[in-house]
Amino acid sequence: MSRFFRGGDDSSSESSSDEEELYGSDEEQKVPTKDADSDDSDENDSDEESESESSSDDDDAPKKGLSRFLVDQDTSESEESGDEAGTAKVKSAKDKRHDELDATITGILNGQKINDWVSISNEFDKLNRQVVKLQDAGKAPKSYVKCIAELEDFLNETLAKQKVTPKKMNATNARGLNAVKQRIKKNNKDYQEQIDAYRKDSAGFMESDEEEEVKTAPRSAKIRFDIDQVQDDDEGFATVGKGGRALIFTPESIFKHLRTILESRGKKNTDRGEQIKIMEKLFEVAATPYQKIRVLMTLVSARFDLGSGSAASMPLEHWKAAEKELGILLQILDKERDHIVIEGAEEWDDDEKAPTLEDGQKYIRIPGSIVSFIERLDDELIRSLQSIDPHTSEYIDRLSDEGSLYNVIFQGLLYYEMLREDASLEVPQDSVNRIMQRRLDHVYFKPSQVIKILEENSWKQIPAKRDSKITPRSKSGDAAQLLNTICTYLFDNSEGIIRARAMLCEIYFLALHDEYYKSRDMMLTSHLQETIASFDINTQILFNRTLVQVGLCAFRKGLVYDAQNTLQEICGSGRQKELLAQGVMIQRFHQVTPEQERLEKQRQLPFHMHINLELLECVYLTCSMLLEIPLLAQTGSSPDVKKRVISKTYRRMLEYHERQIFTGPPENTRDHVMQASKALAAGEWKKATHFIHSIKIWDLMPNTDNIKALLAKQIQEEGLRTYLFTYAPFYDTLAVSTLSAMFELDSRKVSAVVSKMISHEELAAALDQVTETVIFRKGVELSRLQSLALTLSDKASALIETNERTLEHRTQGSANAFNRKDRQHGGQRGGGQRGGRGGGRGGGNAQRQAGGAQFTGGALGAAVRG
Predict the structure, then answer these.
(1) Which of 416, 405, 412, 394 is nearest to 322 (CA)?
(2) Pick from 637, 778, 790: nearest CA to 721
(3) What does the alpha-carbon distance between residue 303 and residue 297 come to, in Å, rounded to a whole number?
(4) Coiled-coil ranges per the record (predicted)?
(5) Phi–psi pair at 639, nearest 5 degrees
(6) Which of 118, 366, 397, 781 is spaced 20 to 30 Å from 684 by Cα?
(7) Does residue 14 surpass a pLDDT of 60?
(8) Phi-psi region for residue 514, left (φ > 0), alpha (ψ -120 to 50) or beta?
(9) Sheet with 733-735, side-by-side order of all strands
C-alpha cells in the first residue's frame, strides 16, 4: 500500500502529485477517500479514523498522509506552512538573470567603496556578459545603464585625483584601472542614448514604465529572407546575426562588424569559418583604403586562428588565401603611401567614421605588424611540410608555395625600407632584422642556381623604377654576393641570436659551395663553438648542420683528417638524427613526456632541408678507415706504444665485423667500408678501392668522378703507410721503385710519403736519395713478455706516485721530509733507469717509434742493453 494514498498504485499517486504541482487547481486537489477494493474496506476505515483522531488531537502537528500535499484555503496558513516546511520559490529564467545582474552590480559598488579596481574589472566583464541575455531590441536593463554611467563617472573622478595629487598605486590595482579605462569607453558607446537619458533625469529614468517586451525570434525559428535588403549567398540564404535578424553589409557598418568579430575571438563556440565569410563580404563592400586595410588585417588574423592548435597545421586553402590577402595588403600600402601599418600606433576607437588626415599629419597610422604576419605565414608552411609525407607528390606541390611566400617576404622588406626612408617614423630595427632573417632562412641552404631563380621571380613583381637599398637589384644575379650582403647587414645591425644565425648561414653557404678555407676561418674566428650552448635549441641545430656541412666540404677537397675531425663530434655521438633535427631518436630506458615529444616534432626540419644521413655516415666511416688502419698497423708492430683511438664508433664496428664467423658480400654502406678496411689492412689496396667505389651513395655528391679519384689516391697512400708500418721489422733496405710498382705511385710521391713518415718519427729509417733506397734502422726487438713487464713497471710507478700524493694530502705536510727524501731516491732511480729508454722519449712518456728502432726503458731495458 502506498505511503501517502489509501488506494491506487504508485504510478497513479505520482501522476496525481505531478498534476498538483503543475496546475494547483482546487478540483484536482480533491482526492478520493476510498479507492481500494471492498475486501480492504475495514483497513481503510481504520486508517481514516486514526488519521482523523490524530488531526483533531493536535492541530499544530504536521499533517500526515495525503494532507501533506494539499493547499489550504487560508492563504496566511499556507504561507506559514510554506515557510515552516522550507519550500523554495520557483523563479523564471529571466528573474534569475536579473538577480545575477543585481549581484554583479553590488560587487562593482563594493569595489568602488574600497577602490579595488581588480574586482571592478572582473565584475565589469562579468556584467557585460550577463547583460547580453537581458537586452530587448538593443535596450539594456535600467539597472545596468545606471551602473555603467556611475562607473564611468567614478573612473573619471579617480583619474582626475591622480593628476592633481599623484599617488602610487599597487601594480595589480593599476592594471585593473587601465583595463576598465580601455573597455568602458568602447562599451558605453553602444548605450550612449540610454546613458544620456539617465544623466538628464536619473529619477524619472528609473521610475518610468516598464519597457515593452519585444518578442525575438527563437533559435529554432526559420530564417527570414528579404531579397531587397540583404545580399544573398549563392544558395539563396542570408547571413543571420543574433536575434534572428539578417545582417546587412554596408561601408558604414564595416567597423561595427569588425568590432564584433574582434571581441568574439578566442571565445568558446565561436564559428571561425562564419566570421571569415563575413569578413570576405566586408572586403567586397569596403570603399576606402583604410577600410580595406582594416578588413584585410583582421581577415588574415582570423585565418591564422584556424591553425592555432598544436596538433594540426593551418588548412591549405586558408593558407593560400592568407598569402594572397597579405600580398594585396602590401600592394595597397605601397600604393597608398599616406596609410601605414606600424607597431605601437594608437588604435582608432570610433566605429562610426574612419580617421582622416589633420593639419600637420602625414600618415594615418594603423596598429599592426607586417613582419609578424610574414613570420606566422612562414611558420605555418613549415608545419604543413612537417605533416606531409615527403615521398609523395603532395609534398612537391606544397613546396612550390615557397616561391610565392618568398615574394611576400621580399615585398615586406621593401615596405619596411620605405618606412625607414622617413626619419619621423620610428621603425624598430628589430623588425627589419627579423624579416631579413626570414629571407636568409629560405636561401642559405640552396644552390646558387635556385637562389638566382627565386630572386628573378621576386623582382618581376616589383616595378622597374623601384630598388632596394639593402639588396640592390644589381646584386640579385650573384647568389654569393647576395648572401654576403644580407649576412653583413645582419651582422652589423643586430646582436644575439640573429647575429649568430647570420654568421652560421653564411658559413653553411660557403661550405655548400666548396669554399672550405673561408668557411673554416669564419667558424674559428666567430668562436661560436664556445658560446653555442647558451643559445636556443634552433640555433644549436643550425650550428650542428653548419659543422656537418664544413666537414663534408673538407672531404670533397680531399682533406681526410680535417673532415674526420670536424664530423667526429656529430657522427661519433650516434645521435645524428636528433642533433640535426631530422628525426626523433627512440632511446632505451628513457621516457619522454608528451610535451617534450611535441616540442621535438615541432623542431624537426622539413625534408627538403635534410642532410643525407647515409652519405654523412659513409664519409665519416671512410675518413676513419683511412686514419685508423695505418694507426692500427703502427701500434700492432710496437706493442708498448700507448693505444690511441681516433674514432671509437669505427673501432666498435670493426671489432664487431672481425668477430663474425662468416662474412658475406657487402650489402650496405657500412659493410662496404668494413670490407675495404679489412682489405687495406692486409695490403690489398686495389680490393679496398673496389669496395669503396662500389658504394652507390657517392652518386649523390657533385663531381662524383673527382671524388672517387681522390679516394683512390688516398687509399694508395695509406696502403703504402700501412705496409711500411707492418713490414718494416722484416726489411733492411727497400727500393723506392719496388714500392712504386707495388702501389702504382710515382717514385717522387713514394719518396715524399717516406720522408714525411721519417720526419714525424713514425718510421725508424733513412732515405738514400742516391740509390733511392729506404734503409731501416734495426734495434733489439722485445718479446711479448718483456713488453708486458715494461708496461707493468710503468703502471706500478704511476701507482706509487699516486699513493704518495694521497698520503701527503691526508697527513697535511707532516711527512714532507720523508716524502722529499723518498722522491729524491726514486727520482735518481727512475731517472737513471728511464734515461736509457731511447733518447727521444724524455723519461718514458713519449710513444715508442715503429719498426723496433728504440729501446724501452726500465730495469728490463737496461738488462737487455747490457
Answers:
(1) 405
(2) 637
(3) 10
(4) 174-201
(5) -65, -25
(6) 781
(7) no
(8) left
(9) 733-735, 773-776, 765-768
Cα torsion through 602, 606, 612, 616, rounded to 10: -40
The tens digit of pLDDT for each residue in 464-501 reads 888 888 999 887 788 999 999 999 999 999 988 999 99
What is the SS3 assignment for 88? Answer: coil
Q: How does DSSP assign 665-695, residue by residue?
A: ---SHHHHHHHHHHHHHTT-HHHHHHHHHT-
**Can you tell me the mean pLDDT for 744-753?**
91
Burial 532-545 (b: 16+ CB within 10 A, else e): beebeeebebbbbb
Q: Given CA atoms 95, 96, 101, 107 in this order, what sign does their dihedral have?
A: positive
Which of 75-79, 640-644, 792-796 holds the top average pLDDT? 792-796
Q: Is 831 left (phi over 0), alpha (psi -120 to 50) or beta?
A: alpha
Which grid cell sits at 89? 520559490
Least confident residue range of 171-175, 447-451, 468-472: 171-175
Q: Where are the domains of the chain?
A: 1-68, 94-206, 246-494, 613-730, 784-865
Q: Rounded to an integer, what distance in angstroms lies between the CA atom of residue 51 and that of residue 745?
A: 128
d(CA 786, CA 792): 10
Output the pTM of the full model: 0.66
C-alpha 581/C-alpha 544 separation (Å) is: 9
CA-CA distance, 549 to 229, in Å (whole number)? 65
What is the sign of the dihedral through the CA atoms of 5, 10, 16 and 19?
positive
| Helix H or strand E encompassing 341 | strand 339-342
- The amino acid at 738: T
Q: Which of 55-59, 108-112, 573-577, 737-741 has the lowest mean pLDDT?
A: 55-59
In order, the DSSP letters of 541-603 are HHHHHHHHHHHHHHHHTT-HHHHHHHHHHHHTTT-HHHHTTSS----TT----HHHHHHHHHT
- Residue 751 to residue 771: CA distance in whole angstroms: 12
CA–CA separation, 106 and 95 (whole Å): 17
Q: Whose grid coordinates read 564595416?
A: 254
Q: Quick one: the chain helix, strand, coil %, rounded to 5?
A: 65, 5, 35
Condensed to tens digits (0 to 9), the pLDDT of residues 583-624 reads 876 665 567 777 777 888 888 899 999 999 999 999 999 999
- 786-801 in b/e form (b: 16+ CB < 10 A) is bbebbeebbeebeeee
Question: What's the CA gap between 501 and 495, in Å, rounded?
Answer: 10
Nearest of 37, 24, 31 to residue 65 by alpha carbon: 31
DSSP 352: S
Strand partners, 136: 139
* Sole residue written with cell 504510478: 11
Q: For residue 731, what is its C-alpha cell?
A: 726489411
Reported residue count of the chain is: 866
- How far lies 577's CA from each of 45, 545, 605, 814, in Å? 92, 11, 11, 57
